[in-house]
Amino acid sequence: MTLAILAGLAYGAMYALVLYVEPNRGEMTVRIPAERLNPQR
Question: Residue 35 and residue 18: Cα distance in Å, rounded?
Answer without folding.
Answer: 41
